[in-house]
Write a structure and sequence with these properties.
Layout (H helix, E strand, L loop, with lengths): L14 E9 L3 H13 L3 E5 L6 H5 L1 H15 L19 H20 L9 E3 L2 E3 L4 E4 L2 E10 L3 E3 L12 E2 L13 E5 L3 H12 L3 E6 L10 H11 L4 E4 L4 E5 L2 E6 L2 E5 L1 E4 L3 E3 L33 E3 L10 H15 L13 E4 L4 E6 L10 E7 L4 H5 L6 E7 L5 E8 L2 H13 L4 H5 L9 H12 L23
Parallel strand pairs: 1-2, 1-6, 2-3, 6-17, 8-15, 9-10, 9-15, 10-11
Antiparallel strand pairs: 4-5, 5-6, 7-16, 12-13, 13-14, 18-19, 19-22, 20-21, 21-22
Length: 484
């Protein structure tokens, strides 16, 4: 079993002084710890609750293990098309699926725990709260620190009225601990977490209904991509958008009611978001303005709160709750906690991936952020794309935008096969200020799914001034699915 908590270490002295105190042993906290350890041994790491990071324990890794099992089982629906018979005889053993998820999860967590196991008395198990800019209270201990890195993470939101349903309300923190799952599941919230869970459970044979108050799913802001993703996912589970739901008791089950109807389910997955773990953190003792959510302004290039010696990194700052962003923020905070002058680090090109099928990816600027007059748009449907057809994955849409003045790549949104790989390629291109013609000079091996990206690039290139005759970027399509 996963080790739920680290044992409290030997108590420090009643009043301790250190160069750096790090609050939180999640991804951001561990990244900060790595940088601090390069400069000093005079630090403490303070953590409340389970060690092992959100990603390894309850987030990225167990959810991908569940998705992998669901996709493996769902593959039986394509077997007949490939000329392979007998897929209808397969069955999903849900307890066995969940057992494998937990086994993998425990392995991932054990690897993370190694980062803190040798810290000895510098590793403090307990809840820390600020008592001014340089002072932390941990139980009956007082720790004075020259610099403080706050990285306490976040927790799933369960609306208060839902809490009366007890363990019939699941979150990403509790879903993977279930020994089995009932046949009827409601998923409220169809952002990244909700979409991934809803499709995975539906592919494992459960009857799933998904709900969201927003009109577009999975965080997509481009209307055409959002509609393409919704249409495809709705083939696998019921999707209800633009609705607000109420939960009610229904003879031991839960009735989900909205303006358009109602449905009875056995359990509900609350995927309405995560909230920063800042309650009781003492941010109000820093003497800086807080917004209506109790959050101070944080410099994203240094992670510092105003001109205080306190830095706030990772999910706890409510900015970009993604592992690579949390790791970057911890890295930035750790560096700035150990240097006297501010060190400003440029942030990476925005990249988000939802591991549903087709994968949903946004890279660079979102559609909602664009000034449309100065933008060229290229798109490709994967319905007829050659490699996608051979794999029975010929579905989805990619939309790409570039600056009209020079063809410089700005961003893309897509619900497409292999989108995670195309997204990484585009992130690199955007970070290097490449143009559409620059990317068209890249070799596109045949047949690959990346050839779909080339189709979208060519659509934009047709609206740009032509490049030179000797430039391979102007090599056009051959006009045949089998060749393009």
């Amino acid at each position: 079993m996963m080790k739920p908590e680290m044992e409290p270490t030997e108590a420090l002295n009643e009043h301790d002084r250190v160069e750096v105190a790090i609050v939180g042993a999640g991804t951001a906290g561990l990244a900060a710890l790595r940088e601090v350890q390069k400069q000093t041994d005079d630090f403490v790491l303070i953590n409340a609750g389970p060690y092992g990071t959100t990603c390894a324990r309850v987030g990225c890794m167990p959810s991908k293990a569940l998705i992998a099992a669901a996709n493996a089982f769902h593959a039986r629906t394509k077997l007949d098309e490939f000329g392979i018979r007998g897929g209808e005889g397969l069955a999903a053993d849900i307890p066995a699926v969940l057992n494998r998820v937990r086994a993998l999860r425990d392995q991932f967590v054990s690897g993370v725990l190694k980062a803190t196991e040798d810290l000895g008395r510098r590793n403090i198990a307990g809840h820390a709260r600020l008592d001014g800019p340089n002072r932390l209270i941990v139980g009956d201990r007082v720790i004075q620190a020259e610099q403080i890195v706050l990285a306490p993470g976040s927790s799933p939101i369960v609306p208060e009225p839902w809490q009366v349903f007890g363990n019939r309300i699941l979150t990403s923190d509790t879903l993977f601990e279930q020994a089995d799952l009932p046949p009827r599941i409601g998923v409220v919230g169809l952002g990244a977490i909700g979409i991934e869970i809803a499709q995975a459970l539906a592919r494992l044979g459960l009857d799933v209904h998904g709900f969201d108050a927003r009109e577009m799913i999975a965080g997509i802001s481009d209307e055409k991509v959002a509609q393409a993703a919704q249409d495809l996912l709705a083939e696998e589970f019921a999707i209800h958008l633009g609705v607000r739901v109420e939960l009610a008791e229904a003879d031991g089950a839960i009735a989900i009611r909205w303006s358009g109807g109602s449905v009875v389910v056995d359990k509900v997955v609350a995927a309405v978001g995560r909230q920063p773990n800042i309650a009781g953190l003492g941010l109000d003792t820093l003497g800086v303005p807080l917004d209506r959510k109790g959050m101070p302004e944080v410099d994203p290039a240094t992670m510092r709160i105003a001109d205080t010696p306190v830095l706030l990194a990772g999910d706890a700052n409510g900015d970009k709750p993604l592992l690579h962003e949390g790791a970057d923020e911890g890295h930035i905070a750790g560096i700035n906690a150990t240097h006297t002058s501010p060190i400003h680090l440029a942030r990476r090109v925005p990249l988000s991936i939802v591991f549903c099928d087709p994968e949903v990816v946004a890279v660079g600027q979102r559609a909602s952020e664009l000034e449309r007059e100065g933008v060229l748009v290229g798109e490709v449907s994967f319905a007829a794309q050659g490699r996608a057809r051979t794999m029975q994955e010929n579905r989805g849409l990619l939309r790409l935008w570039a600056a009209r003045r020079d063809g410089r790549l700005l961003g893309a949104e897509m619900a497409a096969p292999a989108a995670e790989h195309i997204g990484h390629l585009l992130a690199l291109a955007i970070s290097e200020d490449l143009t559409v013609h620059d990317l068209l000079r890249m070799p596109f091996y045949h047949p690959t799914l990346e050839e779909g990206l080339r189709t979208a690039l060519r659509a934009i290139a047709r609206e740009l001034p032509p490049c030179g005759l000797s430039d391979l970027a102007q090599c056009g399509p051959l006009g045949a699915d089998a060749l393009d």
